[in-house]
Amino acid sequence: MRDTFIETTTTLLAENPRTAVVLADISAVALEPAARRHPDRVLNVGIREQLMIGVAGGLALTGLRPIVHSYATFVVDRAYEQIKLDLDHQGVGAVLVSVGASYDGAEMGRTHMSPGDVRLFDTLTGWTVHVPGHRDEVEPLLRAAADHDEPVYVRLSTASNATALPGPGRLRVVRRAGPGAPLAVAVGPVLDPLLTATEGLEVTVAYTHTPRPFDVAGLRALAGRDVILVEPYLAGTSSAVVARGLSDVPHRLLALGVGGSDLRRYGTPADHDRWHGLDAAGLRRSISAFLA
Amino acid sequence: MRFNLQASGMTVTTTTADLSVLDGLLRRVTGDEKHAPSAHSTLDVLWVLYDRILRVTPDTVDAPDRDRFLLSKGHGPAAYYAVLAARGFIPPEWLDDLAGPDSRLGHHPDRLLVPGVEIGSGSLGHGLGLGVGTALGLRAQGLSDPRVYVLLGDAELDEGANHEAIAYAGATGLDRLTAVVVDNRSATHGWPGGIDTRFTVNGWTATTVDGRDHDAIAAALTAHRPGRPHVVVAVVAPKH
């Protein structure tokens, strides 16, 4: 996904003179060819994430469309107040593109993990959040985001589903069970483990790469009594959205995702999936218990 | 220290009548009859900027090639509002209900509520980064004429975000950018060695002036050189 981001952004810089990229060293080498061609629109500020967002705000104030990129923990967690004030409060937008996701960099430890990024955007208003589940979903999302001035967050990951499901951000049924069956919604790269986990169960599985704005109309059309949410970031991030969307419909909600505590463990992303119950076996256990 | 009406009346464009009007507007926004205008540390710098330096008028607040003035030190914006009213950016009536429930003017300015205000500010340490980005955005669009001025306080310099911006602007020779630091010695731990050195060590040019001397301020604000960002340190009486 990161390579697709680099390729697409390099193309966008050539095609659209309104685009500009702001970096804080991360991926600067990969974008060096684009920087040579567009020295005024590829800006590496060094390891300065507060400035990175401040610069993006200033660029947007002059009418450009900034694309800002770093690890999720640096571009979102660290620079949260700059996102709130230098973008939102100024009434301007940007495209923030992160890598690292919740624990893609598990071997680097907690300092490089950001399971809470999407939840932070829920404290703000008007952000579109894309969580692509396959590299082929990335380019159309980036192209669409570069074309307007609204705030957009794109959360890239090394985790991936086997098959891309590009297209609109609406909930898309991937496996349909009978009417009134439990609905399980996967956001981004957790679709494949969810499909494995629900094999043989009477559960409708739907997918989205765009949790914000959440497709509430699609949710209402598909939901029976039982709703299962599987997100690759903090568990329960979308619980409030689902609860609001179904406030007049009797329902039960199981919200699965990354746990909130610092496990103080390294290992691989697959290890963390297992520890957080996000591998197929863990999802199967949680879902079976919920539906029992 | 008093706002020096006579000395300023000697300058090219400012008249004693202008300053008298400004004085009245300031009293109107603060509702304060007791304190001299000099209680407002930024007043002289703001007046010189809007009177002699900035190429922006109420008719050009959205013009792409206008000069930008970013008030980073959003705290205590009474002088800013008075100057904006004096120069016709906002109606003087707006000054009468500061921070009221229907007021467009609060104790920190909001760019979406006040014509001519380039950034909403208040939380310290945001303006210089936005100013760097604004200068870069103008450059990327071939707008080589406008300058970007950012006003900060000496205590605001405590915020680390400023030092990210100072280092980067200096290293890249961002010469469309001028920072103005109004120094009333309110930083808790001070700036031993001088505020200007924080900038010059990073490649900026710097001028330190009497923050009440309008001619000196104007000269400092035009002392920038190609290839380097510029800072004006305007020293006023200590806050305490």
From TrEMBL, chain A:
Q: What is this protein called?
A: Transketolase
Limits of the Transketolase-like pyrimidine-binding domain: 1-163
Coiled-coil intervals: none
Which Gene3D superfamilies does this chain map to?
A: 3.40.50.920, 3.40.50.970
Recall the GO molecular function terms of this protein's record: magnesium ion binding
Q: Name the SMART domains for this protein.
A: Transket_pyr
Automatic annotation (TrEMBL), chain B:
Q: What name appears for this protein in its UniProt entry?
A: Transketolase
Q: Which residues form the Transketolase N-terminal domain?
A: 35-229
GO MF terms listed in the record are: magnesium ion binding
Gene3D superfamilies found in the cross-reference section? 3.40.50.970
Species in which this protein is naturally found: Polymorphospora rubra
Which top-rank group of organisms is this from? Bacteria
